[in-house]
Specification:
13 strands, alpha+beta, 3-stranded antiparallel beta sheet, binds protoporphyrin IX containing FE, 24 helices
Length: 533
């Protein structure tokens, strides 16, 4: 005893105690600012040093800090792995249960969607993918989590806040609004801006943009002596989608905006901020506010601004222009490129689709592609759906969270404690044989037109098909996106013969798809020749 007392060090003992108390406090009160949190830790760890300076005679100061860090990390690890943790009953890899750092690494590698699929295969429909996070692939949970009376957005939006330039812009960003009422308020102008009348204006803009792309591609074919253009179709499709009348298709990406945007998707997929986008948005907003009178999305959003909530529409248009660019361009461009990729991989469907398009808009007669006929074209829509099923452009992180103070939520047989984040990964649901089989992993558009009664083993559960998410925070631009997908696919397939360039290994396309919250893609080198000049 005397020996123990003689070895007792008040500074180190208090350091250990401070670390345990800090862990308990952090558990209850999640810090919002990383800098504030780190400064707080240094301040707490310094208290024992200030109170017991005499101990410094026997220990260097760094030992005191090292002990604090070791105790707090060990305490967190033990608690997260222990049966005392509220999510202890849910299976998941040890590294995921200990820390989010492991998932940040997986995210960095870009194959998060495949990792989630492996986890669900190994552990079942509910997997613990983070210390306080679950991933769920039971389709019955979709309504409970994403539906009308579902949960607000999850903590990932805390870190992904776009337009961080000012509080005003933050408060106006629809996609990162975590409070249900605030989200509903911000969503109203978007819903109106995608109503029937505005959609007529947008379809005209999409048709003009498609003509522009058609003309550019034809021009490239004409330039070569064999009338065959060698192009990276993925790049041109991106210019088309991102172009949204920013002149990128005709002038090219002179300022590297698109390139910047793609590289800017990596940091937020790990830590989360895209400041350059705010600058571009401010430019766009100025342009819109001063001289541009086109009846595009910005025009309609401004028309529907709630005058009580935003006297000055500028912050609204800034955050919305970033949102429209980010939410709408990569998603549409990747899906369009995926559709062409699958059609090149499965020429049978290219031919069937071409016959359907020709039957409606014969190329010899120069019949214009009519938007109102597209929804009834079975093969066209089956092909689009099948590409969205296999490669949903937002593959993994549809995230919601049980709010603190709510008391928790019952999801099926499971009670989910407050503070838990829940992910519904479309990529995993879409490739789950419980919902789509047979040929679950194959591109098989016919599944969309088959009659269930033809084959008792045939499963096609469209309620598990959620490329645009579900509920009050689903994709606001879905109608526009679907129109763009239908129109441009029909135009390209009718007007051009398309094939992979020699030497391009098609498998590289899927290898290059990286899950950076939305998919980013690599080049799609194709040969194009006009079907009628
Ligand atoms: C193929 C194309 C597209 C796909 C697959 C897609 C998919 C999605 C998904 C999965 C979400 C997330 C919803 C959630 O967290 O539950 C979303 C949100 C959103 N999308 Fe799209 N999107 C596409 C194109 C577009 C376009 C063209 C626009 C508009 C220009 C757009 C605007 C938005 C907006 C504003 C949100 C946020 C909605 C909210 O938080 O209420 N999207 N989209």
């Amino acid at each position: 005893m005397d020996y123990l007392l003689s070895r007792f060090d008040p500074m180190l003992s208090m350091e250990g105690l401070a670390a345990l108390i800090t862990h308990v406090w952090v558990q209850e009160n999640e810090p919002e600012s990383l800098t504030g949190f780190l400064l707080g830790l240094v301040a707490i760890a310094s208290i024992p040093i200030i109170l017991f300076p005499s101990s410094l005679g026997t220990h260097p100061v760094w030992q005191s800090y090292a002990l604090f860090v070791t105790v707090i990390l060990s305490s967190i690890t033990v608690y997260r792995l222990s049966p005392l943790h509220p999510l202890a009953r849910h299976p998941g890899p040890v590294l995921c249960r200990i820390s989010k750092l492991w998932m940040a690494y997986i995210s960095f590698r870009g194959k998060q969607h495949e990792y989630f699929k492996e986890l669900h295969l190994r552990y079942g429909p509910i997997v613990r993918v983070g210390p306080n996070e679950l991933s769920v692939t039971d389709k019955d949970s979709i309504l409970i989590i994403l539906g009308k009376d579902g949960l607000p957005k999850g903590p990932l939006w805390q870190g992904r806040i776009i337009t961080p330039t000012s509080q005003k812009n933050k408060a106006n960003s629809l996609i990162s609004a975590r409070d249900l009422q605030h989200h509903a308020k911000l969503r109203k102008p978007w819903n109106k801006a995608f109503g029937l009348a505005p959609m007529i204006d947008y379809t005209e803009l999409v048709i003009n943009k498609s003509f522009e792309l058609n003309k550019l591609l034809l021009g490239m074919c004409r330039l070569s002596c064999d009338k065959t253009g060698h192009v990276d179709l993925s790049k041109w499709i991106s210019l088309f989608s991102f172009g949204h009348d920013f002149g990128l298709m005709t002038e090219g990406d002179k300022n590297g905006i698109m390139k910047n945007m793609e590289s800017a998707l990596l940091p937020p997929s790990i830590s989360q901020h895209i400041p350059w986008a705010a600058l571009f948005a401010v430019e766009q907003a100025k342009l819109r506010a001063t001289r541009d009178k086109k009846k595009d999305l910005f025009y309609h959003l401004l028309q529907n601004v709630d005058p009580e909530s935003t006297a000055d529409p500028f912050p609204l248009i800034v955050s919305n222009s970033v949102l429209a660019i980010i939410a709408g361009s990569d998603t549409t461009a990747t899906t369009l490129s995926n559709i062409i990729y699958y059609l090149l991989l499965y020429p049978k469907y290219m031919e069937e689709l071409r016959s359907e398009i020709e039957a409606n808009f014969p190329i010899e007669e120069h019949a214009p592609i009519q938007g109102d006929k597209l929804p009834a074209m079975k093969m066209l829509n089956a092909i689009i759906n099948e590409a969205l099923r296999l490669l949903p452009p937002l593959p993994t992180l549809l995230q919601r969270a049980v709010p603190k103070g709510s008391g928790g939520k019952l999801i099926g047989h499971f009670f989910i404690p407050e503070g838990t984040a829940i992910v519904i990964p479309p990529y995993c649901l879409h490739r789950d044989p419980r919902y789509f089989s047979p040929r679950t992993e194959e591109f098989w558009p016919d599944r969309w037109s088959m009659d269930k009664s033809d084959d008792p083993n045939f499963v096609h559960d469209a309620s598990a098909f959620i490329p645009f998410s579900h509920g009050p925070a689903n994709c606001a631009g879905k109608t526009l996106a679907i129109f763009e997908l239908r129109y441009l696919t029909a135009m390209l397939v009718r007007n051009f013969n398309i094939s992979f360039q020699d030497g391009f290994a098609p498998s590289v396309w899927e290898e290059n798809l990286l899950d950076r919250f939305v998919f980013t893609k690599g080049p799609l080198p194709v040969k194009l020749s006009p079907r009628a000049l």
